[in-house]
Design goal:
about 60 residues; mainly alpha
Length: about 60
Amino acid sequence: MAKADELRRQQNVEVLTKYAHKAGVDPVPYVHLLANGGTVLEIQDIIDGDIKRAEEEKKTS
């Protein structure tokens, strides 16, 4: 069981890291969210929201 959990965790980290790199953001803070109990889908939504906010801030600056 522990081996399966570790494999799932590693796969989730890989998925989030790739997603963050494609989005052009640092994956480290998002991987920490995963370690603190967030799901991949929740964190992908957070990444999307962060990117959207950053784009809106650029427009108003």
